């Protein structure tokens, strides 16, 4: 039915080494096509089927936001109410509370001032206790979009306080059952081969391995990302939003969720209520992505065309494949090809770092402007270069790579755009091309610097005693012996174990190079939850 899309899917599966993928298309508010390909688990060899549940990760936020808006329509609160007014004994800790409280609207637009969040304690806490312990604003509410998982944990507590029901029970009775979402579940499924297994393509050796079920930081799961369901059931949810809210919401409330509430950059993009609002293939798009636990997810819809796509991938960090497949599907559903312009427009070249998730992109002016993602917390696939086509003053439409199909805006040293409300701030010049590894360097001795982790820099001391012996020290452990050390010809490889509170034991793979008198490279932080590539800079002590 969609041969061009199937060709694109096959190419992305092969190029990125995806374990498997499931996709569903919605047109005129109806689920019209679905497909599953690849393995549910590469260990068991069980093939994916369209009815198999996946972890949808942060796409859960759109479902939780819909549930909260149901309660708003019943008169339980107003969008601009202070959140703490409705939380009972639970409080969001906000040093600006007297002058600017966190409002309900702020939670759904990621402007609450709460942090990105994630694991914070090795002891799992019930939702309300977790929010009481950890929900603390890091910036003044209402000033900027900074993606906040913990904001949706607060929304979960709001749902429980306002409805008198556990959030999982509320979602089942008021969202899943009215739509006939029979596979939908809040919390992890039982460990049996009837659901998709999460996978990771390692950046250390490019091998794909399976991961255990997601390890949530709350009991039973987080409202920021704790739902499982099949691609067909998630399509029912998207179809309801494309059908004036279906049985879940009034047409007015659905439209309210889909409009822009907080703008970002110079474009028409930003945040709706629980949805990202942006432009894709030249059209208004509402969407959301999901990442983590071995899964990459996406829902996207053109409200005016009543067309939508659901894409679930059981391999982590596949932002390029998600953008290419998802936005190609939307373009085909809309029925009009994108028009390539002959105009050229330069962008400020340099290296840009995201304000959250610590992603790096390089902006270059080649034949046309390009963006290339080089590293980041949710980046693991083959992320090809995104070429930018002018779409207005300071605005571009991207082709290829993680920005494929999305509008990108450039202004005042910042680049915004993509499936999430990313803001990339210029950090420095492009690599000069002169960073040639010094193969004659003497690498023995003591080196000091930092590993740049997703939760902040970690001071580290590396002592290289010989070509096969080295130790590493940090606040988390002293004189840890590196295994499998090879330190010669300007290259250092090795690995070590380290226990991190809240994250458990990590196995860390070191890949450093001698460059202009210092050591630089990456440490790959690996755990049962996944893998992070952390950049390292060390100077001789």
Write up what this structure looks like.
It is a single chain. The protein is an alpha+beta fold and 541 residues long. The chain folds into four domains: 3-57 and 184-218 and 227-334, DD-peptidase/beta-lactamase superfamily (Beta-lactamase); 66-163, no CATH class; 350-428; 445-540, Lipocalin, CATH 2.40.128. It is built from nine helices and 32 strands. Strands 27-26-25-24-32-31-30-29-28 form a nine-stranded antiparallel β-sheet, with no helix packed on it.
Topology diagram in text:
Layout: H1 3-16, E1 20-27, E2 30-38, E3 54-55, H2 60-73, H3 104-108, E4 125-126, H4 127-134, H5 149-163, H6 167-179, E5 185-186, E6 199-201, E7 208-210, E8 218-219, E9 227-229, H7 231-242, H8 251-258, E10 262-263, E11 270-271, E12 276-280, E13 283-292, E14 295-302, E15 307-313, H9 319-334, E16 350-354, E17 360-365, E18 369-375, E19 386-392, E20 395-399, E21 407-411, E22 414-417, E23 423-428, E24 445-453, E25 456-466, E26 469-474, E27 477-481, E28 483-488, E29 491-500, E30 504-515, E31 518-527, E32 530-540
Helix pairs in contact: 1-9, 2-5, 2-6, 4-5
